Amino acid sequence: MAGNRSHPESTTTGHCQVPDWCRTLAGKRLLVTGAAGFIGGALFRRLRSYGCDVTGTVLHPHEAKAIRDDGGKAEVLDLTTDGSFAGCLREIDIVFHLAALFQETGHGEAMYRMVNETGALRLCHAAAAAGVERFVHCSTVGVHGDVREIPCKETSPFNPMDRYQRTKLAGELAILKFAGTLPADRMVVTVNRPAMVYGPGDLRLLKLFKSILSRRFVMIGSGEVKAHLCYIEDQIDSLILCAVAPRAQVHLEAFNIASDQPLTLNELARLVASHGKVTVPRWHLPVFPVWLASVACEAIWAPFNAPPPLFRRRLGFFTRNRAFDLSKAKPHLGYVSRWDNSTGIAKTIDWYREMKLVSETNR
User: Fold this and answer.
1) Does residue 279 register a pLDDT over 60?
2) What is the reported pTM?
3) What share of the chain is helix, strand, coil (3-state, %, to 5)?
4) Where do the domains of the chain lie?
5) Ramachandran area for residue 27 (φ above 0: left; ψ -120 to 50: alpha; else beta)
6) Is 10-198+229-259+326-337 a domain of CATH 3.40.50.720?
7) Mean pLDDT of 166-189
8) How many CA atoms lie within 13 A of 349 on its CB side?
9) Which of 208, 251, 255, 263 is nearest to 235 (CA)?
């Protein structure tokens, strides 16, 4: 088991100063793919704050320039290219693979598969060939889709519901299959499956929070389906723990990661409203008419290669259960959530307001 993350002391070794619970990162060269994204960016900044020797990969040159202008190290990496990945992996000890295609309605399933399955597997192959010690692959609890076994375990049946979830499942299974062929002293491969990650820096839940805080929120369906959130700081802890836990505890393993306890959507809406000091509208819309509208929106917007205002994946938020058993992550990783739902939601609302993404008049 990894060390206690609440321990205040740190250890200085080699190239970086890190807390005791992840002191084995000291002197390692790290690579974070998807460093321009929400989770990848937060991990990249955390590792930099520890003083680690970390490089972030991004898709666009202007994103790499922004990181370099801030004093960081960055490389451009396109998972759809036929070129070699060896350059960005040279002398790297640990890879955190977070780059993925997510909620891009302008792309078909073939592109999702190219990034989330083929590209991820090629990167894993290249990492093994380059002598990388650890490969932490970020997947999603979405591989279980509409959860039928509550709480959902890592061994619960797979039930992916859309192209993102299908291709992420294909990617993690292909990576684990390949890793199973490696010699016993070669690269350690671990799969991290985050729940719905949110917090300062996240825009995914902005629309939901904003509609509640502006008193325009309407629940679709009963509101009694389960949601399981993961505060960004817990998620970053879990990724690092995957990279430092003993090989025997994490190699070829997958871990559900979330924060606190699952709650119903009605409870989530009440928490957001409570911290925003507003009342929650009591309106509920039936699911089927909204589903028909989402299908129509997708069809109308498709020729314009633009995201529709309503789509079926978003509707799934209101109709699919998500509640996860985290008991495996504790003995294997030493992972225990440090952030309760109430505190995480309050921090997120504060950030939205600080960034003026939610009007102060909504108070």
Assistant:
1) yes
2) 0.91
3) 45, 15, 40
4) 10-198+229-259+326-337
5) left
6) yes
7) 97
8) 25
9) 255
